[in-house]
Amino acid sequence: MTWARAGGFASNISRPYPVCRWAQPAIEAALTLQSAAKFSADDIEEIAIETFAEAAALGAGCAIPNATDEAQYSLPHPVAAALVFGQVGAEEIELPRLADPRIRRLLAAMKVTEDAEFSRRFPAERWARVRITLRDGRMLASEPAIARGNPENPLTDNELRGKYRSLAEPVLGVGRAAHIERLVDALQVDPAALRLLIDNLMQAPS
After folding, report:
1. CA distances from 166 to 89, 107, 195 (A)
2. Which of helix, strand or coil describes residue 46?
3. Are 19 and 28 contacting, i.e. CB atoms less than 8 angstroms apart?
4. DSSP assignment letter at 189
5. Are the C-beta atoms of residues 127 and 136 closer than 8 Å to each other?
6. DSSP string, 10-39
7. Could you list the pLDDT tens digit for every one of the 206 residues in the chain?
8. Cβ neighbours of residue 136 under 8 Å, at least 6 residues apart?
9. How many whole angstroms separate alpha carbon 44 and alpha carbon 106?
């Protein structure tokens, strides 16, 4: 049994990034392209994102987010942050990273457009493609990407554990977060673990 099934996450959506679900396909496309082509944010000249209309509109009224809620409902910001930091976690949508000059440069170099086929598939499917022009003249294009973290395209156990730790440890501390994780693991083999887990979760953070 996977950790997702043990913890009751398998039938739910577990977003890998703490931003709007509609922005997630473009983040996936950008990170996959960067991993495959081995370039850094400093190598980028231009970014073009093609996605469905609703996603393309995210952040249209706020070109440069200055607060967490603005970054969470922006498409350009999390894509730029992903290309700069290689990830999009809580820190990437908060100050000081919101104001990082490398992100601001990529925002200015980014264009977002609607793809008619992706719009036709929405809301049943959510797709995006990213095209990046590098300073050395190379032009790179991702494959169409969809969001991960749903039952059809789930996160791995390691990704779920990593997300849990990144959110739980700052609030609960490393020790208590690890204890809860062990109790979730024990759900697969020990019926008594459920009561212990509930009791632990009902305790206020110390």
Report:
1. 8, 26, 24
2. strand
3. no
4. T
5. no
6. TTS---SSSS-GGGHHHHHHHHHHHHHHT-
7. 455 555 555 556 678 899 999 999 999 999 999 999 999 999 999 999 999 999 999 998 899 999 999 999 999 999 999 999 999 999 999 999 999 999 999 999 999 999 999 999 999 999 999 999 999 999 999 999 998 887 777 888 888 888 888 888 888 999 999 999 998 988 888 888 888 888 888 888 87
8. 43
9. 8
From CA 30, how far away is CA 141, in angstroms rounded?
9
The conformation of residue 200, written as its DSSP 8-state character, comes to H
Which amino acid does the sequence have at 35?
Answer: S
How much is the pTM?
0.81
Rounded to 5 degrees, φ, ψ at 90 are -60, -40
Backbone angles phi, psi at 105, to 5 degrees: -65, -45
| Distance in angstroms (rounded) separating the CA atoms of residues 206 and 199 | 15
Closest CA to 44 of 56, 57, 30: 30
Cα first-last separation, the chain:
32
